[in-house]
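Here is one record:
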Amino acid sequence: MGMIAEESFVKAMAARGLSHGQSQKLWDVYQRYEIPVSFLLDADLPVFAMSQQLSRYQGTDGPVLVDVQCLEHLVAMVRAAEEDGIRLMACSAYRSYEYQAQLVQAKRQRGESWGQIFKLVAPPGCSEHHTGRAVDFVCPETLEAADPLTANFAGTSAYRWLCAHAGAYGFAESYPTGNRAGFLPEPWHWCWQSER
């Protein structure tokens, strides 16, 4: 794909449901971080607007931000897990387009190819974290690992609890094995879909 003009990009994002303002922010991020826009335009992935209504929730390393509509469901789910002896801890939730681009840039600086990066990290604009409704969980069994966000989470009692109960709170595992997005499995990543 050749060079794409800003106006064409903004129109393409509007056709995928983003407001003009959010489309412009996303364009600016791709330009600032020198990420080829073709990864977003060619991706068969949904594009997400950044939440404009966020609230603080206590995460593992301090507060994380979650969408206000999601907050009460997250709190209720974590409390229910605690009542069952399961400790769920949020280590990541809302991410801006810029923060997502910084994650991509960090992997680029470590020498990873674009293809490797986008198997693990969604292109800016395509992360459910932008909505403030996606939460990455850790638990005591994975917290001490060098990277607590590991496939080993799938072997924990916390993961089994989420599989059995998260749906009652409107949460679903976004990226199980063989997911439609083509991402590697992320058993720690759960997104609030809506009230059920």
About this structure: The mean pLDDT is 93. The first strand starts at residue 54 and ends at 59. The chain has one domain: 47-192.
